[in-house]
Model the fold of this input.
Amino acid sequence: MGLIDVLNGMQNGPHGPRGPSAGSGGMSPMTMAILGLLAYKALKSFTGRPGAAPAAPAPAPTGSAPGGGLGNILKGGLGGLLAGGAAGGVLSGGLNDLLKQFQQAGQGEVAKSWVDNGPNKSISSDDLAKALGADQINTLMAHSGLSRQDLLSGLSQYLPEVVNHLTPDGRLPTEQELSRSI
Done:
């Protein structure tokens, strides 16, 4: 089972099935939130400034998504980031930065259980909110269309599974290994 299979399993996540008005073939809001979070974390890791927001993007063209880095990724850049051979690098960098953020927020043991072989420890919506921070949550809400409660509930349910899937050998995989798992 590849990452896409795991993410496709989220189509009927906490926000419910996508209706006909959403169009066929679109990403579920929860899938968009998880991929957006990983892509945003990767973008931050590529800037070489851990803990800092990515470099300010050029002024946004009219009609582009608000929110800078993550907003632009979710608006149109996510497909480009995940296309071709770049997907492994994006996921690897994003996963590494995300796990560091959990460690810094005092949730290192929980996140480590998602990587290690064995059962995944759960994380409450409150602990997840503290680990991610208001800016990331608000941006994910704005671009996924999920309420704060639905977003945090879904992330607390699905994020351990996604991290576990991305780390099948109990360690952070290389970019090449991640590219093969997609």
Observations:
- The longest helix spans residues 86-104.
- The chain has one domain: 27-48+67-181.
- The chain has a mean pLDDT of 73.
- The two ends are 9 Å apart (CA to CA).
